[in-house]
Write a structure and sequence with these properties.
Length: about 260
Amino acid sequence: MKLLIDAGNTRIKWALVDETAATLGAWLASGAVMHADAARLGGDWQAALSALPGRSVHGVLAANVAGAGVRDNLERMLAAVPGLSALTIEWFASVPERAGLRNGYRNPGQLGCDRFAAAIGAHALAPGRPIIVANCGTATTIDAVTADGIFLGGMILPGLGLMATSLARNTAQLPQIAQDAALPAGFADNTDDAILSGCLAAQAGAIERAFTLHGASECIISGGAAPYIAHTLALPHRHIENIVMIGLHATARSA
Ligand SMILES: Nc1ncnc2c1ncn2[C@@H]1O[C@H](COP(=O)(O)OP(=O)(O)O)[C@@H](O)[C@H]1O
Ligand SMILES: CC(C)(COP(=O)(O)O)[C@@H](O)C(=O)NCCC(=O)O
Ligand SMILES: [K+]
């Protein structure tokens, strides 16, 4: 069994998986915490391991785009959990080629390793198809993968929460909209709904534009803001809760 970790700029997600399992994403246990609650992780892992008696973890594969402080903190927490303390973490990195995917970034190491993992996951779920993979987290990334597994490149825009917050913070008259606000579509007749409608249109519009530009036949949408954006998309799509984690699973399986 392996422990997979996806540390983004808002939340740390994790999953325990049998890397030989045929089905990608068949987690034995999983969880997510905001960075402010990261201290909870050690206890969460310990509880998950206790619920899986007779099974042991023999590797940790972690993708981190949240900086060195988060990496050090994860190492400290893992070192304190019985059953995990002896393991060295493999820090997943963007390299020129891995798990059947070629990295077409001009400088492959500059690509966020979560985007590389997401592309590996997308190609594993839809091999032989040109794909747009949209990961809607703190930032929204919209990336193009070819049918034969080349990461062509992509787009980075502020995530849905960041877009709405930047309007609220940088204008005198625009309020902060609630994260769980009802979702308007089109031309809103009040300020809160107009902000949300505008930000959703920007997110969905960028994904649709990328889909057309790439001539894609598959659109995968994922990340914390995906439930809000997915149903505004005017194209067929698959909503995958965490495509980065699927990519880490595919990578662990290919090793
Ligand atoms: N309950 C929630 N908690 C945190 N973020 C949420 C929640 N609901 C929606 N979101 C949106 O999802 C984003 C976080 O998604 P996530 O995929 O975890 O991001 P990251 O990978 O950057 O950490 C937030 O920035 C926000 O836009
Ligand atoms: C674009 C990102 C900030 C997205 O991070 P997230 O929203 O998943 O927390 C991250 O993938 C990153 O730091 N990328 C490095 C720059 C690049 O990919 O070109
Ligand atoms: K993202």
